Amino acid sequence: MNEVDRHARTDRTASATEPSEERETERYDANGRCDPSEASTTGRIGEPGAASDALDVAIVGGGICGLTTALALERRGIEPTVYEAASEYRPVGAGISLQPNAMLVFDRLGIAASIRSAGVALDRVTIRSSSGRTLQRFDVAGVERDAFGVGFVAIHRGDLLRILRDALDTRVETDMPCATVSSTEPPVARFEDGTTVRPDVLLGADGIDSVVRDAVVDGVGRRPLPTVAYRAVVPVTLPAQARTAGCEIWGQGTYTGGAPIDDDRFYWFATAPDSLVPVDADPATRLAALRDRHAAAPEPIPTVLDALEPDDVIRSALADLPTLERWHRDRVALAGDAAHAMCPFAGQGAAQGIEDALVLADTLATGDDTESALAAYERERKPRADRARAESRRLGSLATIESRAGATARNLLAAMVPTRLVDRMRRRRVANASLPGD
Fold first, then answer.
1. Phi first, then psi: what are they for 235, rounded to 5°?
2. Which of 36, 53, 54, 129 has its CA 20 to 30 A from that of 246?
C-alpha cells in the first residue's frame, strides 16, 4: 500500500514528508506461519531492569520516527528530549497506511490498539488496472493478520502523531530547528534560536534534508524524481464493502489509490509526471487536471475526486536518498528518512523508520557503550532498510510507466504472479522485521 512520507518537499494548497539483492533470513516456519502470540506480544520492552544506566539522549526531529524512538527509549527507562522544528503540532496533512511490520513495533510499545481504534484495520488491498481488471488482491485478514496477529491500518498522520505524543512522558521542544552539529565526539548541536545541547547521544530523525546527517556523511542530498505526488483526505461516504478496503490503480503513467481512514474520510493519493501541471498552477487548475487524468479509473477514485475541493490537495515533489556509506559517527546516529528516505511505492518509508526506533532503543539500553550500541543498530537495520528503499524505487519505475506497451506488459506480468508467491513475500517482509528479542 502506498504512502507519501515526510521525505517529499511539499507545496501545500491545504492548510497546515541501490544495494544488492541480498536474501533475508526467513524467521517463520515451513508453512509460512508465525505464532501470533509470539509475533505480536512477546519481548515487549519496558520490563523491570531492562534499561542500562540513564543516558542523556537528544532526538532532532519530532515526526513519526522521532516520537516512536522517544517512546521506545522511555519503555527502556531512558528519558530523551525531542527537538521539533515546527512551532506546534496541528491536525493537518494526509493519511498513512501502516504495514504489519510497523504495527508489530507499535504492539511492542503498547499503542497498537489505540492506533487501530483511531484508524481503519483493512481487510484487503486490491491492485487493479485502469480498466478495473484485478492484478493482485491482498487478503490482509487471511495472511498477515492470521499469521502475525496484525495487519494494515490506515490512519490520519495527525491522529498517529497525537497517539504517540499522548503516550510519551518525554518533553518535546517545539519551534527548535537544528542549525548545525559541530561535533560528534562529544555530540554538540546548535539550534537556530542559539540553544546548544551536548547530550551523551544525538539522534537525527530530521527527515530527508537532515542537518544532523551532514555530521555523519558529508555532502549527501536528496535525489529528485521526475514525478509529483498528490494527496488529500476527503470527506466521503463509501459503500459498506469499501469501508475496510485499500486500493491501487496502475494505469498508463497513472498511479492512484488510497484507503478509508475512518467511517467518512478517505486518504487518496496519486502520482503524475511533473509536467502534468505547472508548479505554480492555481489549485482549481491542478484539481481539474487530476480529475481529467483519473476520469476512467475504477471506483472509488472518481467518487473521491468528485468530493475534493481545490484547497484539499497537497502537492509533493518526490525524492529519495542514495545509499549512505554509514548511519553513525561516534555518538551521533541517523534514523528514518534522515538515513534512508525512499519513494512511497512500497509503503515502507515510515515503517522502516518505526523499526529503526525499536532497535535503537534496544541497543542503547543493552549495549556496553554508546558507540558499540550505535554500531550494532546500524548492522541490524541498514541492510534491511536499504533493500526496502531499492524495492520502492523499482516499484515506482514500474507503477509510473508512461508508454502504452510498457504499461500493458507490466499489468499482464503482475496478474500472472501466483498468489502463493505474493503471500510468501508478504509473510517474509513481516517475519523479518527488526524486533529485538525474536
1. -70, 115
2. 36
| pLDDT, mean over the chain | 87
Whether 198 is covered by a domain: the verdict is: yes
Q: Model's pTM, two decimal places?
A: 0.86
Between the two ends of the chain, the Cα-to-Cα distance in Å is 26
- For 182, residues 6+ apart whose C-beta sits below 8 A from its C-beta are 188, 189, 190, 215
Q: Does some domain include residue 438? A: no
Strands laid side by side in the 95-98 sheet: 95-98, 153-156, 120-121
Range of the domain at 71: 9-431
Query: What is the number of domains present in the chain?
Result: 1
CATH of the domain at 127: 3.50.50.60
For residues 33-42, average pLDDT: 37
Q: All 3 cell numbers of residue 360?
A: 535503537
Cα separation, 248 vs 140, in Å, equals 15
Instruction: Tell me which of 255 and 10 has the higher pLDDT.
Output: 255
C-alpha cell at 252: 498508463
Helix, coil or strand: residue 169: coil
Q: Is residue 3 part of a domain?
A: no
Contact 126, 248 (CB under 8 A): yes
Q: What percent of the chain has pLDDT over 90?
A: 70
Closest to 15 (Cα-Cα) out of 279, 305, 314: 314
Confidence of residue 38 (pLDDT cuts 50, 70, 90): very low
pLDDT above 70 (res 342):
yes
User: Can you give the pLDDT at residue 279?
Assistant: 86
Q: Closest Cα to residue 201, out of 350, 79, 384, 379?
A: 79
Residue 274 is predicted with a pLDDT of 84
Specify which residues 315 forms β-bridges with. Answer: 11, 230
Decide if 187 is inside a domain.
yes
DSSP-derived letter for residue 63 is S
